[in-house]
Amino acid sequence: MNSELIEVEVVNKSTEAEGIVSFELASTAGEVLPAFTPGAHIDLVLPNGLIRQYSLYEHNDQPHSYKIAVLRELQSRGGSEYVHQNLNVGTTLQISAPRNHFELVPAKRYLLLAGGIGVTPIMCMAGQLAAQHADFTMHYCCRSRERMAFHDKLSAAPFANQVQLHIDEESSQPAFDAASVFANVDKDTHLFVCGPKGFMDFVINSAKAAGWDDSNIHFEYFSGVEMTPDDADSFQIKLASCGKLLTVKDDQTVLQVLQDNGVDVPVSCEQGVCGTCVTKIIDGEPEHRDLFLTQAERDSNSVFTPCCSRAKSPLLVLDL
């Protein structure tokens, strides 16, 4: 995680939908915060020791505050539960500067797809594209109106006519028709999608099945894939700098073994989503279990995420 942390204060807290609360964070020193681009996220260093990432949903070139929205996960690992219960107006905490693994790329046209809480980076992109008078369409899918964050904000936005809402429980709202949306395969249109894993897998697979090229599909997952010891084998890692051999048991992650042996690796999400811990591999074949690396990066076998990925070969030699 970025070592240069910023102290901020919660200056506003609002309920945006069922289970979703937004927070506005401002510098305790009253300073302008670091600039960011749409798609960026920040790390929240929570007082309980957890670190969690949340996308910024409103863009500003000279931000005096950052705005995030947090879904209270039913199976929370402690982060969203803590944020909902303990972060209130006046609470101070530390955050990282914004990082962006989900950048907009130059394109003639944009297709933005959001599912549930994935609306946060997508809405930020829409606002910026509208300000640039870019050609884009946004689709926002949700189970119910009660769980649809920023419904009113999007409906009143200057770009509201470029936003299509899809609410599963309302027949008056058109269902999201993937076949129709992706029927026009156009190399000049780039797709950006964010949301729950099931939604994203459906969208990405639908686009690929329709003939969209991988290079035109951009995405960001919010959570990783749960793994159990049943699908893991033990293996060894070697630290190239000193030649030390370490064993990773079936119920351990590479990251845990490294940390237990005093090796400092930057880490944040611990789910293979954020890319903070990406580590170079000198020799060996990794078993990629992340949701961050591109297919080209995976195929190269030159990097992996030690927080969740493992090894296919008996030994991985790490550039550590």
Describe this structure as you would to a colleague.
This protein is α/β, with parallel strands linked by helices. It contains seven helices and 18 strands. The protein has helices at residues 79-86, 119-131, 151-155, 178-181, 197-209, 254-260, 295-300; strands spanning 6-17, 20-27, 41-45, 51-55, 65-71, 92-95, 109-115, 135-142, 163-167, 189-195, 217-221, 235-239, 245-248, 279-283, 286-287, 303-304, 310-311, 315-318. The strands form four sheets. Strands 4-3-6-1-2-5 form a six-stranded antiparallel beta sheet, covered by helices on one side. Strand 8 (135-142), helix 3 and strand 9 form a beta-alpha-beta unit. 38% of the residues are buried.
Helix-strand layout with pairing:
Elements: E1 6-17, E2 20-27, E3 41-45, E4 51-55, E5 65-71, H1 79-86, E6 92-95, E7 109-115, H2 119-131, E8 135-142, H3 151-155, E9 163-167, H4 178-181, E10 189-195, H5 197-209, E11 217-221, E12 235-239, E13 245-248, H6 254-260, E14 279-283, E15 286-287, H7 295-300, E16 303-304, E17 310-311, E18 315-318
Number of domains: 3
Query: Low-confidence stretches at least 5 residues in length (pLDDT < 50)?
Result: 225-230
User: What strand line-up does the widest sheet have?
Assistant: 4-3-6-1-2-5
Please state the CA-atom Rg, rounded to the nearest Å. Answer: 21 Å
The CATH architecture name of the largest domain reads 3-Layer(aba) Sandwich
Enumerate how many helices there are, as a single number.
Answer: 7
- Going by helix content, strand content and strand pairing, the class is alpha/beta
Q: Mean pLDDT, nearest integer?
A: 89
CATH H-level superfamily of the largest domain: Nucleotide-binding domain of ferredoxin-NADP reductase (FNR) module
How many E-type strands? 18
Largest sheet: 6 strands, antiparallel
Termini distance?
Answer: 17 Å
What global shape is seen?
Answer: globular
CATH class of the largest domain: Alpha Beta
**Percent of residues in helices:** 10-25%
What CATH calls the topology of the largest domain is Rossmann fold
The string of secondary-structure elements, in order, is EEEEEHEEHEHEHEHEEEHEEHEEE
Portion in strands? 25-35%
